[in-house]
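Fold Annotation — chain and its backbone
Encoding — discrete vocabulary of local shapes
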Amino acid sequence: MSEKPGMDLSIVTTLYYSAPYLNEFHSRISAAARKITEDYEIILVNDGSPDGTLEVAVSLQERDAHVTVIDLSRNFGQHKAIMTGLAHSKGDLVFLIDVDLEEKPELLETFHDLFRKSDADVVYGVQKTRRGGWWERASGSVFYWIFNLLSRTKIPVNPLLARMLSRRYVDNLLQYRESELEISGLLVLTGFKQIPVEVEKTRDLATTYTLGRKLGLTMRSITSFSNRPLICIAVLGIIILSMTVLYSLYILSVKIFLGEPPPGFMTLALSLWFLGGLIIFSIGVVAIYLSVIFTEVKNRPYTIIKDIYRRDAGES
């Protein structure tokens, strides 16, 4: 159980190039929260945003005692920023949502009602249909297919960040301390009863994830939750070794029984190219796992907090 002084509701979101949306988000999420309880907090985690996001967030905090702003020392990534926000939350219920208004802040009421009517510890949103251009939809589908193919931890397709969490679920989620953090898998791996809710996004904003960041996320997700690529390498090695032995026996039998010379240079060259490429690929996969181990054993904090802006107890 949490040792922090409790309150009814915590709302946690992360900020990165969020200045254009922040005031409207605050107004709408505050109105939704007040329909549920007056005992709530809004935690805004500034993930090293280089624009004027921090200034807007701090101005909101100065006007609204419900707001806490956590300013990270640099950009650590959304997933790590989310975990930092959760670690500072005090609510018996915690609502996660993106700040960019793609998901309506008023979903707080919907998720809260469903949560109260169920015996679940998590109510989470999933997209009815994935939005974006053809590349966004295709790359997203490929990611979920590869992840669920290789990992024993199956994640739902097209989940949203928007979700209502119980306190005990959050406390158990925060026990994960790995540096190579992939929150989609951890949210499932934590367990407890989880109920999906279909949600329609209201906006279709350009993603801040470049192709390189998407590839990095895919590799990090797979290596964090599955050792199957290593097993596949071992199996593939056994298959190739068996094929090599059989082919060697074939060549030997041709030489002995038919007196014909073995096949020429091209067969040898193709075999070398194939095996060389396979070896390099296999070493690359192993190197990725070693990289994950290298990062984890150093036990570095996954975020560093520069400042926390909040109203102290007793201040008016």
